Amino acid sequence: MDGLARAKHQGKKMGRPKGSKDSYKRRKGGYLIRHAKERQKEDKKLGINRNVEHYLENPPLNNKNKKKHPKVPSTPPVKEVSK
Asked: How many domains does the chain have?
């Protein structure tokens, strides 16, 4: 058996132990692209079509200014008036 397969077979835990810190700073490009695509998807629901590059170049101001989906006003049921 190869090293990783043998270690799994012996029941050893894989990966970084819980509570230990990363030894190096992680790259954040993947996170930025994912969030840009989420913002693009939200805007598409509102009818705004932009490239992903727009969202990468223009980050959101803060979480309070996130666009919310427009609420559709609920109309109360119409009561028929008998005369």
From this structure: 1
Report the predicted TM-score, pTM, of the whole model to 2 decimal places: 0.47
Per-residue pLDDT tens digits of the chain, which is 83 residues long: 688 889 989 998 888 888 888 788 888 889 999 999 999 999 999 999 999 999 898 877 765 555 555 555 666 666 777 76
CA separation, residue 58 to residues 5, 36, 55 (Å): 45, 9, 5
The whole domain housing 57 covers 28-64
The torsion region of residue 3 among left (phi > 0), alpha (psi -120 to 50) and beta comes to alpha
- Domain-located, residue 50: yes
> Per the domain annotation, does 79 fall within a domain?
no
